[in-house]
Design goal:
Strand order of the largest sheet: 6-5-4-3-7
Radius of gyration: 32 Å
Low-confidence stretches: none
Mean pLDDT: 81
Number of helices: 6
Structural class: alpha+beta
Amino acid sequence: MQVFGVRLVGINLENGRKLLLSIAFLMAAWLISRSIRALTGPLVRDRAGKRVHFWARQSVQLVTAGLQIIGILSIWFDEPARLTTFLGLFSAGLAFALQRVVTALAAYFVLLGGRTFNVGDRIKMGGVRGDVLSLGFIQTTIMEMGEPPAVQSEDPGMWVYARQYTGRIVTVTNDKIFETPVYNYSRDFPFIWEEMRIGIDYGSDRSRAEQIMLDAARRHTIPIEQISEESLKELERRYSLRPTGLEPQTFWRLTDNWLEISVRFIAKDHDVRRLKDQMSRDILAGFDEAGLSVASATYDIVGMPKLQVEVQGSAAH
């Protein structure tokens, strides 16, 4: 093809037709993909619906990407010899220049088949805690959540002192699954064991304090115990875990200043802060009624060194 007498290398009538056909093919595939994904939207009503929607979207994306690659190769490389040469050069350049991208893409297929997490799961991946919003070929999108005070020193720093949303949406490359552990709060067992620790004076009524904490935990976790029992049995069957009780338990620990009583209980993977808030209010009300107080760090002065004071004054004249 020539423009103003200048011959454009590689551009001719045949290549122009292939370019237009490629654009039309990509647009058609994109429109079909969008239509299919829109049809899966009404399935999202609960967590099960979100999972169906998630896997439907992933399947559509994979099939669409595969068809687009096959279609483009069929249009441009109709001769097998040219296709073989192109694939060899392309693979060599891709392996050298896009190592991290290839690793992230490989991680994507591991995530699809390895049951690591699904959309909606609460995870920690690459140092980011939160709920999975979407999974792409290269990146995973997470709605970030805060951290309990015990882990506030971890990087990055947080200003929300609980497992609640911070409002930041974070993207993490998929290759992080090969570098760091992935913690899943909700995939097979959407419940977690939590603890509350309270210190009391050694001279206080320890049994009464323990009973108040147990009563508060039982009062707020009985419904959770009932719905989590079946899930726990399935978890024990699948992974051969030792049977674990769901009922609240207390544990004592001796310290230099007070007796620390810990109450352990089952909770849902979400909304733990609200549950602990309700329990804290009940425990404090029970302590007030029983005349108990929460221990705090105090210092007793058992002795003072002798002091010598000298007073100097001028003589009166």
